[in-house]
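Hi team, as promised in this morning's meeting, here are the two structures we talked about. I've kept the exact order from the run log so nobody has to guess. The first one is mostly here for context; it's the second one we should focus on when we meet again. Sequence first, then the predicted structure tokens.
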Amino acid sequence: MNEKALHTLEYDKMIQKLAGYAVSPMAKELALALMPSISMSEIALQQQETTEAVSMALRKGNPSFGGFREIRPQLKRAEMGGCLSVSELLYIGEFLYVCRKAKNYAKNEGKEESYPRLDEYFALISLIPELENEITRCIVSETEVADDASPGLRSIRKEIKVSNERVKDHLNGIISSSAYRNMLQDFVITIRNDRYCVPVKSEYRSTFPGMIHDQSNTGSTLFMEPLSVVQLNNKIKELQAKEKEEIQKILQNLSLMVMQNEAQLAANMELLTQLDFIFAKAQLSLSMDGIQPMFHTKGYVNIRKGRHPLLDPKKVVPIDIYLGKEFTTLLITGPNTGGKTVALKTLGLFSLMGQAGLHIPASEPSQLAIFDNVFADIGDEQSIEQSLSTFSAHMTNIVRILEDVTDQSLVLFDELGAGTDPTEGAALATAIIQSLYERKIRTAVTTHYSELKVYALSTEGVENACCEFDVETLRPTYRLLIGIPGKSNAFAISKRLGLQDYIIESAKEFISHDEARFEDVITDLEISKKSVTYEQERAEQYRKEAERLKLEVERQKEKTQEQKEKILKKAREEAKQIYTQAKEEADSIIKEMNREAKQKNQQKAIEQRAKIKQKLSSVQEDFLKSNKVKTTHKAPENLQVGDRVYVISFDQNGVALSVPDKNKEVMVQMGMMKAKIPLAELMLDDTPQPKEPKQRQVSMRQKSKKSQFISAEIDCRGQLVDEAIANIDKYIDDAYLSGLKQIIIIHGKGTGALRAGVQQYLRTNAHVKSHRPGAFGEGDAGVTVVELK
């Protein structure tokens, strides 16, 4: 890639920003060395890695690379047989710990998503628990080896500790002795040259038995080792030498283990460096709300809602910019500081970032082409050192670009032809653009020349664009409008700033009629473009809202279907349980009967049945007494279908559905229950009933006939509200005609939507007298009990 363009488009700043997210020095090096690629397969892999890292980071947070340091020099020294220091071995132990954390981070914990590229990296990380555990066991800190690193070291340090205690005890005896009290400068034990000493006054140099190791700055105090502890101190010195030898052996053994695992450690080093770099790209993407652009080799770019990543995200205005499909050359015009240069840089920087495997801050689906090079001539190129004017410097750069450019390149010119005579500059700019246009090279140019606006309007494949400017506020909106040329707005800005009207009118006289008409046409085009853009944005909002509502309806439908399936499954399980229980009870009864038959104890069975019958009669009599009903009542005579009766054993009013049969039993409807009742347990119900309107008087005989086929409950579970209400409406009509006074509507609990819809409907039905939620034992809130008129 063109080095000058990388700097001009501020690609280097983006790379430095990327390096800031890397943890290890090695990953930072990779980031700073990142260059755009021109290979489609390489770009696709790098983009896939970034996308997978973003997804993984969002799902389970970022992996921890804390403690990841450069260990390649240590590995090289260990490979050559060198002995690593305590701190170097500790770094390798920390590196192994980072490897283990990374491996645990990538563990599959029942996740549904897969990360083909990253999973491959994590899978290749080798754990070396033997080396990690040994280093952890032996190394305590960067300067200390653990006592338990070896039995020999533990024994030596134990001896050193005992010897130190002996020396201290002996010295404590000296400093507390009255014989030496006057000789000592202070009653403390100190260490000089790794030997225990006591501070002695200088005048007792020859009197105090001992060796001098040091003296104070004033010379008044001598630090002397008493002769009585010289042997003990010598022993401590010997033990310390042994300790160093033992530690050296331990370090040598650990270094040998590092050498044996050098290949795995080096491979892990490369893998973790790559993962650190990839997750740095993911952090950069998340920080700027980036997306993965779609790449192709067809040479066109379509950036939607692109935001320059180096501008303040709270202030930057998203722009739509496209190039290379309907037209290959884009001419951007408009006032200064209106956003023309930002649009150019956004186009160029996004192309470089995308080809480097980085996400771009834009909206989906943004598309980028693969360019073999990106050339840019942007900014003030004046050079005092090289005696180049602004125009000369720009032209030198343009000449170099025209020599190196190919039909697969992207060219960006800012203020092409500026810095010289406007007429010649416009002609030169037109010729350069024409040269690139004839070669089908993708080109974007900013300009103030009206001649270039006319050229774009009259040339197919060249398109005008402008950066919108609000004349009322004298501020640019920074929105890029492709399809119309921009105005300079010099007169409007000058008037807004207070320039006298007569001067502005005088200036307008110097503009030709055709030029004035051209500016008016531009104004009309800009107004039309704004209107069209506004309508397009509204249409897009409506489309998104429609899609959202559609998805919501589909989710509700799926949720309802799931609830229906759950209810059916539960009902099947309950039915199966009831069936199993009934079957077990039936089997038990059959076995009992068979057992009694085999034992030929029929008389006993008869006696048991008599006892049961007597018990039932006793219960019935108690019930009748409690309800103050005489057991000597007279059974109804000439009972007809439809007669209202009182069932003594159930303490319920009902309707006779049949005449007494040969067993003197009558089918009676009691609310939602039908049962055959002995005639002796019935009484005629003489309670006066309210007179029904004529339109509702139906033959009770017809009702009784229909009631034999009508259930006292309806199950609406799993149905939509409209579907359930239609079924309930028909059912209530049938129940009313059948003479049922109480019915039960089973709607389930669920979300409560079906229950609310049913109860709302019941308030408007003419046949409904009242309704209430089910009580305990009736189905609770899962049913509604309805009383019919």
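And here is the second protein, the one for discussion:
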Amino acid sequence: MNVNAYIKSLVLYGKKQGLLEKDDMIYARNQLLERLHLDEYVEPEETELILTGDGEAAGDSLETILKGLCDYAVQAGLLQDDTVTQRDLFDTKLMNCLMPRPCEVIRRFDGLCDGTAEGAEAATDYFYKLSRDSDYIRRYRVKKDLRWKTETPYGALDITINLSKPEKDPRDIAAAKMMKQSGYPKCLLCIDNVGYAGRSNHPARDNHRIIPLVLDGEDWGFQYSPYVYYNEHCIVFNQKHVPMKISDATFRRLFDFVQRFPHYILGSNADLPIVGGSILTHDHFQGGNYAFPMAKAGIEQKFEVPDGFEGVWAGIVKWPLSVLRISGMDPEKICRLASKVLAAWRVYTDEAAFVLAETDGEPHNTITPIARCRDGVYELDLVLRNNITTEEHPMGVYHPHAKLHHIKKENIGLIEVMGLAVLPARLKAEMADLEALILKAESTEAAVAAVRADAALSKHADWTAEWLPEAAAKGLADAAHLGETIRQEIGKVFCEVLEDAGVYKCTKEGRAAFARFLATVGFEAK
């Protein structure tokens, strides 16, 4: 297919998806010619065009069109190297030729967001569609993620193996090392990313748009995650590059957002290493239009709230982490009560429960908060966190323990806290190889021995030895069932990961220790 056909196909895609109006099409075509270093355009035959599919198929059509244009760019010497990173940098520039300016996006969003719940939903629908159609969210990569559910004593957990982030090519790594170090933008969350062309060590954001918001009197921004770990996965970030900090203002900001967008939940990672997220240097929240497993978990024990908070209810959630749910009709009261809990937890020590507020001046206690509105009732889940380490658990006492690291060793951040596992891409190949190795073996003993002898899979050997004999006895280790058995066993490991992250365990002693803390704030068990 000739390059002109790809150019016209991309312009027609933009028109069909609402990125362009009819009067924009010649302008967009000429912008694409400039990006491709072309001076002329010849109208292609209709039979040469790639027609945009409907619904999710639109993403597949776009992938084909952009691949064709990137192939041309490689042949024409327009790319430094033929790598995924260089193609991403280039095709994002092409997509920006179809994009509205930031002010137009903001004006459209604000026009839809008329102060009603329906208007708020229409506004986010528009913005999410734009983020997908613009290829800021690469649908054809996101759909490769593996997803399933695993039933546990706490309800069904969501398990994902993330395949959306392409692995770095060695050539890109080498190029990044040779580049002059830049402090602009300061991080991936800074507002300066809007329209930024990117480089070998920083993703292209030509097609990136944000919506400005005011939360608790401060300027924040609203965008979607390009990797969408769940439906309408959004990021709300401070427009200033300031570090994560859980404070009274955090709770007010969360509810400012939830009151404006009641169909979305919003939460914050904790503000300390080990129990925080991957970016602690820039204050931000994450949310979206998704019912997480933790939100579906019920109250295990109800508590009377302290005096002065009439109309507010509280209880411990039946969840592997230590969660206090505060709910009511008045967000301001909920925020004030949450502030009391935060202040008390920051300085709380209970040596019998191995809860130490600090050691050698280093603070350990913090909170992961999540706000939502459910059937007109506001809820705030306060997840108690502690990042203390010991010789036995150098990565954290309340962090996945070493025996689980073959599946998950990364920090347990906000998304995992709520019951959605984001597992490393390596597991896809490892689980396929594990399945093949087991099926080839003549017995469970031989299978475990083979796994132990395999350099890449040996880290899974002890775990395999735990579940394989029982699975085989139940007839769940044959070719028809083994893949699903392995997935469910991974889900069970994630459940253990969450249990390790819980400060107060789901035992009689753990719940008694949890209640001791709550009593210091004025809560009384019913």
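Starting points for discussion:
The first strand starts at residue 146 and ends at 152.
The longest helix spans residues 482-501.
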